[in-house]
Amino acid sequence: MREAIPRKAGLALTILCLASGDSTYSLLLLFRILTSTISLVVRETCAVIRESLQPLYMKPPRKEDLKLVVNISLLGIGDARFKLPYVDVGAKGRENDSEIFIRSAFGSALCEGRLLIPKSAEPPRLNEKLSCVFVGNEAFPLKENMRPYGRVRNLSLEQKIYNYKLSRAQRVIENAF
C-alpha cells in the first residue's frame, strides 16, 4: 500500500495547479505524483477548501436579503492556452462593458500603452507577421483588439465567417465564468 500524500503537499499541488494552469504532466514531473492522483488530490482539496470557507464567506441569504438583487460583472482576459491571466470581478452589473473595461487596471494599461505586449512576429513557415490581438464585442472601444462586424443584414460570407470565429474565441472566456 502506498503512503498518503501529506496535506501540505496536496495543498501546494492544488494552489500551483489552480494558479498556474499547468498541465498535470508538468505537475507530475514537479511533484512525482501520477496524473490520475493529481486530479484526485486537486478535486478533494478544492472540496475541503469549499466546505471550510463557504460557511464563512458565502453565508445563505436571509429572508430580508432576498429582495435585494445584485448583479456583478466579470471581465476576463484569456490566452491561447485557455489560461486566464487577468480577471476583474465585482463591477456593478448596471455598468456597461466599455465603462468596466476602461476603468479596470488592464483596460487603462492597454489604452495608455503600458502593457508589455509581444511585438509582431513571423512564425516559422508563414510569410506574414502576426500580432497579439484582443477579441471583444461591440461594447469595447476599438483599440488594438478585434471586434465583429456590426449587426447588418448584408454581410458577405467572409464577414460572417470572421464573426463566427470571433464569437468562438469569446465563448472560451464566457465558459470560464
TrEMBL record:
Its cofactor is a divalent metal cation. It comes from the Eukaryota. Residues 77-177 form the DDE Tnp4 domain. GO terms for molecular function: metal ion binding. Keywords: Metal-binding. This is DDE Tnp4 domain-containing protein.
